[in-house]
Design brief:
The chain is of the alpha/beta class. It has 9 helices and 12 strands. It has an 8-stranded mixed beta sheet, with helices on both faces. The chain has a 4-stranded antiparallel beta sheet with strand order 6-7-9-8. A hairpin with a 2-residue loop joins strand 8 and strand 9 (193-197). Helix 2 packs parallel to helix 9 (268-282), helix 4 packs across helix 5 and helix 6 crosses helix 7 (229-240). The protein is globular, with a radius of gyration of 19 Å.
């Protein structure tokens, strides 16, 4: 093992064990793809205070030169994830890619620039109508509901600060779904957050396209929330096409994801430890 004190964990599924073995045997043909919030960063009440776990950057800096590519795939704007992750200019991450807004945006470390399509007009319409919808649902801004605007490309409604976060989440699901539908958007539910965004792009589409771009034969994907289910499905599809895969779940709060994972880890610190241990294993003589 890469570190006798921290041996690599054993995946619970045969497909996962084969995926890990393929990663160790063919690191130069491997893509490591990672969600940000809840996977590389702990979930916090204020999303603007989210930062990558302190062990993440050293682990990624050690691992990235050993594999074909590392990508962060997130619902956040790409530039925000870069800032909160501290990725820009980090040693070893010269070719890191951050796919933001579920892949609609792309930041490449090699150019340090973000490429993105024009904002969807439906998002601006939703933003304008949202205060009235929240008031009508009895969850106005004075109730602890927090609205996150994502650069004109999505709007996220967080209920984590509400007096009863889960009740507020359930109360908003139907009216926000109706609001999104009126403007050609979809609702992406997560852990105490409902995000309204344009259809047609998700983490699965983004991951599959990137794996093919990289010409990878192996993919590791780690996530923690409902938005990561599409990426899991992409890995499962790629497996049927000869690409080995390892599905990692960070935390147990989302059983729909945890039940499909090959490897279940308790949270971002354990994900960082896994990445570091993989780096150590791959650099052994």
């Amino acid at each position: 093992m890469g570190n006798p004190a921290h041996p690599l964990p054993t995946p619970s599924t045969q497909a996962g064990r084969e995926g890990l073995a393929a990663l160790l045997a063919r690191p130069a043909r491997t893509v490591v793809a990672l969600d940000f919030d809840g996977t590389l960063a702990d979930i916090v009440p204020d999303p603007e205070r989210s930062r990558a776990h302190p062990a993440v950057l050293p682990a990624l800096s050690a691992l990235a030169p050993q594999v074909a590519a590392v990508a962060v795939i997130t619902g956040r704007p790409a530039g925000t994830a870069v800032r909160y992750g501290g990725f820009a200019g980090a040693p070893g991450l010269d070719h890191l890619v951050v796919l933001g807004h579920y892949g609609a945006e792309r930041w490449d470390a090699v150019t340090a620039t973000v490429h993105a399509p024009a904002p969807d007009p439906g998002v601006e319409a939703v933003r304008a109508e949202l205060p009235a919808v929240l008031e009508e649902a009895g969850t106005g801004t004075d109730s602890g509901i927090w609205v996150e605007e994502k650069g004109g490309r999505a709007v996220a409604v967080h209920t984590r600060r509400a007096a009863d976060p889960q009740a507020a989440f359930e109360a908003l699901r139907a009216p926000l779904t109706a609001l999104a539908a009126r403007h050609g958007l979809i609702v992406e539910p997560g852990r105490l957050v409902l995000e309204l965004r344009p259809p047609g792009m998700d983490k699965g589409v983004a991951l599959e396209e990137y794996v093919r771009e990289a010409g990878a034969e192996v993919v590791l994907y780690a996530g923690d929330d409902l938005g990561d289910l599409a990426a899991y499905a992409a890995v499962e599809k790629l497996r049927t096409q000869g690409v080995a895969g390892l599905l990692v779940c960070s935390g147990t709060e989302v059983p729909e994801l945890a039940d499909r994972a090959d490897l279940l880890l308790p949270g971002p610190s354990a994900v960082a430890e896994l990445l570091g241990d993989l780096a150590r294993r791959l650099t052994q003589p």
